[in-house]
Every structure is written in structure tokens, then in C-alpha cells.
Amino acid sequence: MSGKSSFINRVSKKTTAKVGNKPGVTLKKEWIRVSKNIELLDTPGVLWPKFESEDVGLNLAFTGTIKDEILDKQEIAFFLLKYLLNNYVELIANKYSLDLDELNEKMKNSDNENEEILEIMEQIGRKRGALVSGGKVDKNKVAEILLQDFRNARIGKITLEKAPV
User: Fold this and answer.
1) Domains, the chain, ordered by start
2) Cβ–Cβ under 8 Å, residues 122 and 96
3) What's the rounded Cα separation, in Å, for the pair 32 and 29?
4) φ/ψ of residue 159, rounded to 5
5) Per DSSP, what are the bridge partners of residue 40?
6) CA quadruple 2, 3, 4, 5: dihedral positive or negative?
7) Around 15, how many Cα atoms within 13 Å sit in the side-chain half-sphere?
8) Which of 12, 17, 21, 117 has the CA that lies 20 to 30 A from 138?
9) Model confidence over 1-44: pLDDT tens digits?
């Protein structure tokens, strides 16, 4: 559950509980007095440690529901890009000014799919200027770009789950 701290601040008519525009801001339990006879307990959100499938966990990570600080952003961005290339390749080509035919050809080569995805991440990094000294691509910056573009709907209309056929 999220929004507990915002609710408590609204009810208490003060900004006692720390809030933010992402999950995971509340780090510990805290009692907040609302009135003489009422106190509310603000608690961190809870995520179950085991998901029904790896895809559920990845989808939560893609959307930022699981805090980025506890995940490997490069790995999450890699799996997001893999999903997008397999399902929304045109959107990726358009967003990052990449050649659609080249992307399709790279994704056909299933023997080296992981290497191809890493190469595409590098291309995105070069196009977006995510470079460090020596002209090397900053993989952390590329991961941040991909995740933020996805989370802010700058890539396009995307769904992570599809109804069974």
C-alpha cells in the first residue's frame, strides 16, 4: 500500500510524515499525533519477498514499484529493453533514432541475443550522449535513461501484461 504518509499529513493538517513521488520514502515506523486522543502509525510499504513469477518481479521493477536502490539498474534496464525490442521494436527505433531494419535483424540472431541487446544499449548511450572519458558509454546512465523514458511514457504506449488468448 502506498500513500499512507500523504494521508497522515492530510488528516493531521501538518507535514510530519516524510513523503516523496516514489515508493519507499518511509523507512521506519513512526507514530504521528493527529489529535489529543488519536495517533496514527506510519509504516514503510511491504512487498512480498517471492512473486508468482519472475515476470511479475521484473514488471514491478520496470515501473519503479520496487525501489531502484535495491536493484541492479543495468540489469533491469537490460530486461526492459529486451522486452521492448521483442514487443515494441518500432517505438524503440523511433524514440532513440535507431534503424528499424537493423534492430529487427539483430533480434533475429537469437544465438547472440544478449550481446545484441547490450550493443543496442550502447547505441542508445551514444545517441543520447551518455559518455564518460575516453568516449566509453556510461552504462548506468543508459540504464537510467531507459527506465525514466519508460516510466514517464516517453517511449510510447506500452503494456507489460497481455490478456491470455
Assistant:
1) 7-42 (no CATH), 54-151 (1.10.1580.10)
2) no
3) 10
4) -120, 140
5) 32
6) positive
7) 3
8) 21
9) 456 666 766 776 666 555 555 555 555 677 777 778 887 776 76
